[in-house]
Write a structure and sequence with these properties.
The structure holds 2 protein chains of 2 kinds. By secondary structure, chain A is an alpha+beta fold. Chain A is built from 1 helix and 9 strands. In chain B, the strands form 2 sheets. A 4-stranded antiparallel sheet of chain B has the order 1-2-8-7, with no helix packed on it. Chain B has a 3-stranded antiparallel sheet with strand order 3-4-6, with no helix packed on it. The longest helix of chain B has 19 residues. The chains are: A alpha+beta, B mainly beta. Chains A and B meet through strand 2, strand 3 and strand 6 of A and strand 1, strand 2 and strand 5 of B.
């Protein structure tokens, strides 16, 4: 085995350790607001303490899944004297009733709030039908 | 909300009485707003206290951090951006409005050396201990 390969193995082992540790976190469903117009659907999820790189938004068929793991917040040399909340993983799925454009899925994270925008497919926009006489 | 002790459940019914007391406690706490305000973690050692609070989606300008002696007050208001008339609301779970939380720290802190940082929806306040309250080693004379 070459040195590069060993390093790679170590790296994946470290990553899987992180993944195993993360899956042991308590799972919470983030508080969410959902809005809709004729053209789009918008979701706002409260996910404080989550980095952009630890957020996973996927749209598979008609299920939108939101996942996010809170960053480790530790103060070496300090004792936690009042634990009011713990590090969690946010996870929630929504079934989208409207046909949406999978290419136009947008997600933005600001101040601990995730904003997801789904644009409805053009072919499913309401159309006015002229009644012939 | 409070049920008188003897109306619904006679006191001899032990587990019912316990349940009733527990329900009353929860509702009393709710009415007094004991557990209201953002979730807070307090870290400390002999030199300083660090308080972190989960408060997503807040404009840092709307946040007020006050210190007096060993009392830290976090207050502010979460304002939701108006979504507009054409949007239909399907679900509204996120809370908004004013909040206030007072935290008693383990010791008095240096009010003019307190620093606060708001990042990714988490407020972090660092409060150094007042010099006069730090523990001191006293030599025993022989």
């Amino acid at each position: 085995m070459s040195i590069e390969n060993q390093a790679l193995m170590k790296n994946t082992a470290a990553q899987s350790a992180v993944a195993a540790q993360d899956s042991a976190l308590p799972v919470l469903a983030p508080a969410t607001d959902v809005y809709e117009t004729d053209q789009a659907i918008q979701l706002y999820c409260d996910m404080p303490g989550v980095d952009e790189k630890n957020i996973d938004v996927t749209l598979e068929n008609d299920v939108l899944t939101i996942k996010g793991v809170q960053a480790v917040r530790d103060y070496p040399g300090y004792n936690l004297v009042f634990p009011g909340y713990e590090r969690v993983e946010y996870r929630r799925s929504f079934t989208i009733a409207a046909a949406v454009d999978h290419g136009k899925l947008k997600a933005r994270l600001a101040n601990g709030v995730l904003e997801v925008t789904l644009v409805k497919s053009a072919k499913n926009q309401p159309q006015k039908i002229r009644v012939e006489t | 909300m409070y049920w008188a002790n003897n109306i619904w459940f006679p006191q001899q019914n032990d587990w019912m009485h316990t349940l009733q007391k527990e329900v009353n406690r929860i509702f009393n706490a709710y009415e007094r707003g004991v557990e209201s305000g953002p979730a807070v973690n307090v870290w400390s050692n002999n030199e300083a206290v660090v308080v972190t609070a989960e408060m997503p989606g807040i404009d840092p300008k709307e946040l007020e951090v006050n210190v007096q002696g060993d009392l830290l007050t976090l207050q502010g208001e979460r304002k939701m951006a108006a979504q507009g008339d054409k949007w239909i609301c399907h679900r509204q779970e996120r809370t908004s409005g004013a909040f206030r939380r007072v935290i008693r720290l383990p010791y008095a802190v240096e009010a003019d050396k307190v620093s606060a940082r708001y990042e990714k929806g988490i407020l972090e306040v660092t409060l150094p201990r007042v010099e006069s309250s730090k523990p001191r080693k006293i030599k025993v004379a022989v």
